[in-house]
Design brief:
The structure is a homodimer of 188-residue chains.
Chain A lengths: L5 H20 L2 H8 L3 H7 L3 H24 L7 H15 L1 H10 L8 H25 L4 H4 L4 H21 L5 H10 L2
The structure holds a DNA duplex (18 and 18 nucleotides).
Amino acid sequence: MARVNTKQLIVDAAVAVAAQHGISGASMDQIAETAGVAKGSLYYNFASKDALFAEVMRRGFERLSAAIDSAREGVPGEGAPRIVAAATLEALRNNIDLAKLMAAEVFRTDRAWAETMNEARSSVATRLRDALRDAHVAAGNSEQSAERITETAGAAFFGALAGACLDWLLFRPELSLEHVLDEVLTTW
Amino acid sequence: MARVNTKQLIVDAAVAVAAQHGISGASMDQIAETAGVAKGSLYYNFASKDALFAEVMRRGFERLSAAIDSAREGVPGEGAPRIVAAATLEALRNNIDLAKLMAAEVFRTDRAWAETMNEARSSVATRLRDALRDAHVAAGNSEQSAERITETAGAAFFGALAGACLDWLLFRPELSLEHVLDEVLTTW
DNA sequence: GTCTATAATTGGATAGAC
DNA sequence: GTCTATCCAATTATAGAC
């Protein structure tokens, strides 16, 4: 085992490089240089560029799901959308490179690892959908009515958060998280 | 002048190829093959790959803006969000490759033509923001209150539409446009 | 486990014929 | 205005030393 976690070093570098140039535009050379390791080490730790980015995306969505789950613990239904939205914005802000990368690649269906990424995407959308459903029921609507809120609404919610978040971080970084949250939720 | 519009042929092929592999992953060779022209013709019609995709993105956002403007004509404030949302979904559905491409590249800030694309992105977000503002006022709120709805809300609205639209077209194509619209707007 | 060196292929772009 | 042929740089991946 390596003295430091080389795998994590490489994954972090891959995120940083791909956030700027996209996955196809990110070269293994530049990733190795950014990580401070030789290119040979990349191929010792990952079978291929595809395998590396499958791992990058898997970890990214996993982190997002975990942040949402953690935020929701013990929160009543009516507060759910705001709290999961805040957790999502927070997670994206903490790693803006990863946010750009996920936004750019989440709907690419041709990759070798598209299936893996799609499951991760779906699990995030499902969590957001559930938050919307819980709030719907807490507002006095029936369970049956809440079931009309599907994963598509979750995907819309996620898209709204990602769109607002990137607009915020890239073009209006002076705004506060609370302000961005208000803009997303008051119109929702 | 060419007998057929070679420029348009090339632009269409570029959209198709880049929708699958991203812009960096789209090779000029494959674009030429898809368009049914020689690679030399690409470079006769466009100065470089960057210039080609600058034109692709410019036309894409222009089409979207035009669709929104056309839909809004003569529509009262309270109906504005639904009508512009429908027009946006319709435009994206009519060219799903372009939708994937715009979603993947809209927040890339390192491109040579990032400034051009950013203006186009901003003009779409502004149009959506205006629709939200008009509905807000039509619902009985003050103009002053409506001004708290900014371009960030427009970006969120666009993100929601793009997220729902791609979820729909890629994974749930059996849904109707009206159904998708309802899912986006009832939770909004 | 990490390095250096290199193989094999593909990429963007250009020159010049027609 | 379009084609074919070609250049050169960059890319993924591998081999083998340490």
